[in-house]
Amino acid sequence: MERAHTAVEGVFETLKELSHARDHLKQFTSVYTASDGVHQVSRPHPSDHGLLFLFLVGGVTPSELRLIRKVVSAHKPGTQVLVLSTRLLRPTDVPELLFTTQRLVPDIGV
């Protein structure tokens, strides 16, 4: 009897957790679609949130940052963009990075 009671409690605990998870999914309109008591879940979409994280490996120039700002404001006016990069490049850095023979050696700051 004790084992059966423990098993039933486990089932109810799992159902309670599923209910909480479903409640959290309701905040995403493209993820949660209720229909006839059956809940269908689709993948989250980037347009669900008004914040875009963009990480650029290798560096970014100020003109590229302006271009990102212009493109995002033209296509998604209410979206905030957080641009992260390994370094901020100067215009004079670009030819050096393209044509140097040392570009394959990692710069680890030593």
* Model regions low in confidence, pLDDT < 50 over at least 5 residues: none
Strand content: 15-25%
Largest sheet: 2 strands, antiparallel
Specify the structural class. alpha+beta
User: What percent of residues adopt helix (DSSP H or I)?
Assistant: 40-55%
Which outline best applies?
elongated
Output the number of helix runs.
3
Average pLDDT score: 75
Compute the number of strand runs: 4
Measured on Cα atoms, how large is the radius of gyration? 25 Å
Query: Could you give the order of the helices and strands?
Result: HEEEHEH
* N-C termini distance: 67 Å
Q: What is the spatial order of strands in the main beta sheet?
A: 1-2
How would you describe this protein?
The strands form two sheets. Strands 1-2 form a two-stranded antiparallel ribbon. Strands 3-4 form a two-stranded parallel ribbon. The chain has helices spanning 2-25, 62-75, 93-99, and strands spanning 32-35, 38-41, 51-56, 80-85. It is built from three helices and four strands, in the order αβββαβα. It is an alpha+beta fold and 110 residues long. It comes from Oncorhynchus tshawytscha.
